[in-house]
Amino acid sequence: MTWITSEAARLAQRGRALREAVERHPGRVAGAVGSILLFTSVTAFGLAEYGPQPKLPPVTLLQQPLQLDLGAQLQQLDTQAQIAYTSTEVRRDDSIDSLLRRLQVTDPAQLRALAADASLRKVLREAQGPVSAEVDSVGRLHRLQAQLSPVDHSGGVSWTQLDVVAQGDGTLRSSLHVMQAQAQTRIVSGVVHSSLYAAADAVGMPEQMVAQLSNLFAGEVDFRRDLHPGDQFRVAYRVYVAQGRVLRIGRILAARVSTHDGTHEAVWFDAAQHPGASGYYTPSGGSVARAFLLSPLPYDRMTSGYGWRISPIFHKPEFHKGIDLAIPIGTPVRTIADGRVVYVGPGTGYGKYVKIDHPGGFATIYSHLSKYEVHVGEQVKQGEVIALSGNTGWSTGPHLYFQFFVHGRPVNPKLIAHYSPRGRAVPAALKPQFLADARIGTQWLDLLPRTAVASAARD
């Protein structure tokens, strides 16, 4: 009780002191109260909305029972066949059974049925690229696809797709669909550092294109001996593509080779209405073809040139009337020009050799052969294989002894280009059409910087 009395007295004293302060300073107290009210109103304005507030509807709680039969769903998933996607390449010793098993097909009934399917035997013989399959978890085939060998025709290249599809009753249905490959023009540019083959490989140019390029300029450039570091080439060529994969390498459409001796160019002219005029020409319409190839071999290494030397057989001076080209036994030997075979047989020192007479008083001899591919009296065309190289006769190692004669006199084979006239130019009536086509070919070659590659679809 005493504590309550003393606390009440203290509050009363504070109340008297406050009243006295208000009475002594009424203005200050009014300003302080106004400030408090002002700040309080601003705070309220920032939080409260204008106008009367609507009543919120009462909260309604909905409850919906949800039943999950997870056991049944999991059981359904377990019974559902899981599909695996597999692929493989056809191997040389494959059977249908070994191919299918590598694709994870193990169902005995399907293996027996597919072994009797004639279309699967075509896959073993003609498949191009991977064979793909969809197989379930118990080894049953659902679908098989394969691309078969492409076929050339006048409209381009087509390819056949084989589809083997499992039916609802468990049987398999095979079908073949002919598909059209897309023609594309690809352009490559390269610089020679060591060899043409190495430079082509560096820019992704197919080996077939290297052979075409060598043959195209065979009358002007010896790609084995005339190329030097820094020489350049540009080639536009056609390929046929299906599903992103090249089915067939086509022909060169335009080419340019720049060597230390000069620049050589060629474009393909497709004279559809005049087939005899189709061929390769210079951009101005002159013929690229030469009467003589520069070499009878696809590649070689000259070990002895034309002229005086010390005989490797008799070890004394002799005049070498041709050139020796080192080459492995069995390499195809081509005739450098059209002509008629006048001799096939052995000769002293020559071993097995072939002699061909060419129009205009020219002749060639190919010796130290291992096998003949022609007979006496046969007419041969430029580039035709007439024999296989060997090591017969007076020879210290596998090589070809090649001679070139002009009116019966031996001439240095390295001078063949000087005796080789060009073929026919573009016929005058076709010149406007040719020049328009040639302009497109040269523009392709100018598209890229050197050592670049591009691809463009052809309409």
What are the key terms here?
459 residues; alpha+beta; ten-stranded antiparallel beta sheet; Nuclear Transport Factor 2, Chain: A; Glucose Permease (Domain IIA); six-stranded antiparallel beta sheet; single chain; 10 helices
Coarse shape: elongated
- As for the number of domains, it is 3
Judging by the overall fold, what is the CATH architecture of the largest domain? Answer: Roll
Question: What is the top-level CATH class of the largest domain?
Answer: Alpha Beta
Residue ranges: pLDDT <50 for 5 or more in a row? 32-51
Determine the mean pLDDT.
Answer: 81
Assess the beta-strand content as a share of residues. 25-35%
| Radius of gyration over all CA atoms, rounded | 45 Å
Counting DSSP E segments of at least 2 residues, the number of strands comes to: 24
Number of helices: 10
Q: What structural category arises from helix and sheet content?
A: alpha+beta
Helix content: 25-40%
Annotated CATH topology of the largest domain: Nuclear Transport Factor 2, Chain: A
Largest sheet: 10 strands, antiparallel
Distance between the termini: 113 Å
Describe this structure in words.
The chain contains ten helices and 24 strands. It is α+β, with helices and mostly antiparallel strands and 459 residues long. The N and C termini lie far apart (113 Å). The longest helix has 23 residues, at 2-24. It is elongated. Strand 5 (156-166) and strand 6 (172-180) form a beta hairpin. Strands 12, 15, 16, 17, 18, 19, 20, 21, 22 and 23 form a ten-stranded antiparallel beta sheet that branches. Strands 1, 2, 3, 4, 5 and 6 form a six-stranded antiparallel beta sheet that branches. 25% of the residues lie in helices and 35% in strands. It has helices at residues 2-24, 26-47, 70-79, 96-102, 108-115, 118-126, 196-202, 207-216, 416-419, 431-445; strands spanning 83-88, 131-136, 141-147, 151-153, 156-166, 172-180, 182-191, 232-242, 245-259, 262-269, 279-281, 301-304, 307-310, 317-320, 323-326, 332-334, 339-347, 351-358, 362-372, 379-380, 385-389, 399-406, 409-411, 453-457. The protein has three domains: 82-180, Nuclear Transport Factor 2, Chain: A (Roll), CATH 3.10.450.350; 183-289 and 425-457, Nuclear Transport Factor 2, Chain: A; 301-419, Glucose Permease (Domain IIA) (Distorted Sandwich), CATH 2.70.70.10. Residues 32-51 have low confidence and may be disordered.
